[in-house]
Amino acid sequence: MRTSQTRKPKTLITMRISQSQLERLKTRCDAIQVGWGLTQRRLDENELIDAINDVEILMVGYEQVTARVIQEASKLKLIAVARGNPVNVDIQAAAVRSIPVIHAPGRNAIAAAEYTMGLILSLVRNITKSDRSLRSGKFLGEASTSFIGADQSQDVIWNIDGDNPYINFCGFELNGKILGLIGFGFVAHQVARLAKAFGMHVLAYSPNSDPLKAAEENVKLVDLTTLLSTADIISVHCKATADARGMIDRDALNLMKPSSYLINTARAIIIDQDALVWALENNMIAGAALDVYWFEPLPSNHPLLKMDNVIITPHLAGAAEDVRERHSRMIVDDVFAWLDGKEPGHLFQEK
């Protein structure tokens, strides 16, 4: 037991936490909420240092837990990060103080995977493009005072004569197509499961994955060249390591089929920005869907904004309310395990 039964450790919460897990946490911790999870404004370093005085447990979302923060928090004993990777924590500084760091791997895997499939569907069936077209006024009829058809029993077909949406936005089915996954972690596993439900064939490039396990999931591990040159749709899901930086460069894009699409819901630096802009401008690939960028927010004059073969969304793949409940439960479970003298289930181990 790390603390006595009668004394509740002071706990500072800056992460988004569900009400059910907050109430559960308060049965064993003296919990105080501040920062982004409560106000949608991240505390800066000085504000976090002021708030963390006398705190034993820090449950953080997006605030930066720097070496200085850790050094100033003299009573800090545990750091919990409601993210897949605790990239906002100085792990070495925590290790010097022997402060364990727990996190929430896979917390948003389902959300990100479903979002990825949504982007894929929107690209190949021109859902976003056709929506933009109608809202711009193209393919619409004359203004009307009545929105009820004259004869509801008649077959109603959008005007298909001449320049028409049926021809302009005709896409293709996912069934039988090849999906290539770059990386095969939590999110990619979920994407593969969903893609197979659509009848897709799934390839993955992930040098550290177990071929036998992948085969059990009916996913074929291949080299990067094979994946790039074979897949109809390529979706990026690897970590932004030094080796992965700029992995999708001009040479890689040249290997892709002109009819193929590129999806990125992972990290922008995995794709060379200039190479991607070049490939899209020159129709080297059919299109792309991006949820992450080299600069965030995306600059208002970025060339991607003018491209009709690109879907862009503002870093939303993991933004689902279900995620808050999932990471809250993961974190509280691990805090309770630590309080009971047990090893937390999601203790971060730097590789």
List keywords for this structure.
351 residues; Rossmann fold; five-stranded parallel sheet; single chain
General shape: globular
- CATH classification class of the largest domain: Alpha Beta
Please give the CATH architecture of the largest domain: 3-Layer(aba) Sandwich
- Biggest beta sheet summary: 7 strands, parallel
SSE topology string: EHEHHEHEHEHHHEHEHEHEHEHEEH
State the helical fraction: 25-40%
End-to-end Cα distance, whole Å, is 29 Å
Number of helical segments with 4 or more residues? 14
For CATH, the homologous superfamily of the largest domain is named as NAD(P)-binding Rossmann-like Domain
What's the mean pLDDT score? 95
| Strand residue content | 5-15%
Please indicate the count of domains: 2
Q: How many β strands by DSSP?
A: 12
Radius of gyration: 24 Å
In short:
This protein is about 35% helix and about 15% strand. It has about 350 residues and is α/β, with parallel strands linked by helices.
